Every structure is written in C-alpha cells, then in structure tokens.
C-alpha cells in the first residue's frame, strides 16, 4: 500500500516535470484563455514587467509568464528544446537562427525599436562625453558579448565612430553590463536607452549622436511548439496596439 | 542460499525500492550518455585545438592551479588552527570559512564584489593606495576560484590533522626540533594523503567554478573566460565546441574520481 503511494508520488513528480505551459483541459471559449511563456530579451524586462499585468487585466483568465535573458541565450535554449510560446528578440540575426531552424510559426514582426546609449555611474565621475572617450586608456569599459544583440550593436556603433575599445569584460546580457556600471566596477558601458531609463538613480546616460547610433529592431514571433497559439497571437497583437503606449513610456521607439 | 534479491548484510529490499535505485542511477548516467552521444567526434580534436578553446584551457589551468596554491598557503594553516587550537568562536569561524561549499556561487561573487570590488570594503583602499583593481582581471578569476574551492582543502586537511597521532610531534619536540622543522618534517608528511586529496578536490572545484567567476571577474577571453564560462558562451554560438569542452571537464572530473578512489570508492 505504502509502496503504491510512493510510486504514485514518483510518477506524479515525473509528470509534473514534463508539464507544458498551457492547460490542455481548459474549455474552449471565445476570448483567449490559459497561459503562455514569453522568452524575451533582457532589455525588455521592465517594459514587459508592466505590459504583462496590463494584458492579464484586459484579458481575465490569462497568464503570461516571462523568461528574460540575452537573446542569444534564449535562442540557444529554444534550440535545445525549451518549451515556450513566444520569442521577443532584441535583434534580427538571433531571430533568423530560429526561423532557419524551422522552430517558428509564421514570420516575425517588428514590434519595437531601440537605440544605444553610453551608461556611466551617477555623476559621470570619469567625464565620459561620447564614444571616442571609451577608447581612453585606463577607462574600464564593459560591453555585451558579440553573440548578444547589444554586443554586436555596440561593435557597429564603435566602428562607425572609428573607436577601438578594449573591454574589461564581455557580459552575457545587457542587464549584466548595466549592473557592472551601477556597482561602480566599470566606468562605462554601452546599453540601450531603455536600460538607462529603467535603471534609476545609480546610473546616467550619455547620448550617442544619431549619425553614430544603431537602431535595434525587436522582432517577435510565435514558436512552432506553442501549446497555445491563440493566446500567443493575441499577446503579439496587443503589443502592436495597446502595448505600444507602454513601450514608448519605457523609452522604446515605435516599430 | 541467498536469493539474488537478498542484500548480503540485511533484509531483502522490496522490488519497487530497487526500481527507484535504478531510476536514481539512470538519472546520473543519462546526461553523461547524452554528452557522449552528442559529441561531434569527427571534429572534436579540431574544436579542442581551436584558438578559443586553447585560450580557455590555458587560462583555466593557470587560474585553478593558482587557486590551489593559494589554498595550500593559507588553507593549511587555517586547517591546523581549526584542528589544534581551541579558541572562543572557533566553531563559528570554521562554519563561516566552509560556507562557500553550500553558498550559491553567484552569491559568493556578489560578496566578493562587496569586499574587493572598486567600492568594496578592501577594494576601495586597494584602488586608492595601490591602484589595484581586481574585478575583470585574471587575479579576480583566481580569487573567485579560491573563495569557492578552498573550503574543500581546509576540511580535508583538518580531518587529517585531527586523526593524526600527536606523539610523533611530541617526540620531535623533545628531541629538540624547532617548530618549523616539526611542521615540515613531521606534521605535514604525516597528513600527506589528506593534503593531496584536499588539493585535488580543491583544484577540481576551482576548475569547475562558474558563478562566482562570471559575477566577480566578468567574462573576457584569455583574461577571465575560464572553461566553464567558455562552455556557457559557446553553447549560444557553437554548441559543438561547448560539448567538446564539456567532455574535457568531464574527463578531468573522472580522473579526479579515479585518482581519489581509495578515499571514496575503494572502501570495500
């Protein structure tokens, strides 16, 4: 008898580990229901943190789970079989990798754009005024790794400016760059305008002129293995419509 | 006549219990099998000898061996003090020095930043007085690895010292040997097996360190990007390289296990 119970518990644990993201038993209704998991670029953390609850309020009975990481990490996870419904990437190349691998359903659409900004600790103690300063000897600069969108965008901007930077570290996502600057470990980093805006008082931004700046396109797509394509599509539609207002408030440019 | 199900030293286990043991074993073996199956054997050597992999390998060796050296230099005296000297707060101090064994390494990295970072307790002074900046340097990677790995050496050596027969030291002292001589010629040789085992464990842990390193030292090829960091990043850009590098770390771990088999596996 006890053995049975143990066996049942073990089986239940096994099953729980394999669970999908949507409830197969939920009744079909006219409005969207159930839950989806959205893989989103780190730079979307603050904005999506706001949009998620807003969406759930607009569509009661729905649940949006977010997983934030560097876009390249997310793409790697999806390629390794991570279960989810939507990917919002901070660049096209990482999105294209998934499209090429046949892991998307439908074609991606651009829902937001972003610009780069230099981030420095509050008060700008090293008097960084532009990209040219980042090449200065003795200045501790951190960038994103080149696989991460913010990394190749930064490289692009530095190339345009003709500046060679020897970064102290290549971080795995944009929030890690921001953290190193906020902690005062780094003198400067290149992140998105939206990150500086979301970071608060510990850091401040130094603008990069439009001629040297890079516009980052944020594509979004439904994943092929989505268990709730209906809700995933409604969420993407919401981002293109009502969500734009919130995205703008967090510093994103319209698509 | 014992049945095949009968444990030679106990009651016959219920079949379900044996089945759960099998599940447990499979849980450990399957990931290893997966790694071996996914290994691109054809290009393994080429991936392993690529400049990126070699840079990470070289740095990992340098950092983990340096961390082990640091652990030997300050960890052995610490172990000796824990084993031999009773002082108020010893239990607390001992608990705090082995804390990194159970502490999430990322937390260790954050704590290291708070101590040795530019605005840290010691870091501020290091920077102002000597212009020394530890985060983002190989020294930072070594520090992170030492922090996480040294406890393994300390507790292993301490156990050796506690189990040692003190009469040899007493004899040496009565024969007129000086303190350093007793330490070098009597104490340390007697705990040699513990020293070796502790150093190997410490080195293996240092080699595998990830969380504290990426948090405290950052990630830059040739400077702070050790093998585990390279594996993590390669998984996004070149999964085959990640698997081959993982295999190297797996082989090292296996070698450590085999080398220390008398301690762990050879008890029968």
Describe, in short, the structure shown:
The complex is a heterodimer of chains A (255) and B (268). Helices cover 38% and strands 25% of the residues of chain A.
Task: Give the key terms.
heterodimer; A: 255 residues; alpha/beta; D-Maltodextrin-Binding Protein, domain 2; nine-stranded mixed β-sheet; 9 helices; 9 strands; B: 268 residues; mainly alpha; MetI-like fold; 14 helices; 74% helix
- Structure summary, number of beta strands of chain A: 9
CATH topology of the largest domain in chain A: D-Maltodextrin-Binding Protein, domain 2
Structural class of chain A: alpha/beta
Can you give the helix content of chain A as a percent range? 25-40%
Low-confidence stretches of chain A: 5-28
- Average residue pLDDT of chain B: 90
**Helix-strand topology string of chain B:** HHHHHHHHHHHHHH
End-to-end C-alpha gap of chain B: 22 Å
Number of helical segments of chain A? 9
CATH architecture of chain B: Orthogonal Bundle
Beta strand % of chain B: under 5%
- Per the principal axes of the C-alpha atoms, what is the gross shape of chain A? elongated
Radius of gyration of chain A: 21 Å
CATH class of the largest domain in chain A: Alpha Beta
Which architecture of the largest domain in chain A per CATH? Answer: 3-Layer(aba) Sandwich
C-alpha-based Rg of chain B, rounded? 22 Å
The CATH topology of chain B, please? Answer: MetI-like fold
Say how many strands of chain B there are: 0
Helix content of chain B: over 70%
Structural domain tally of chain A: 2
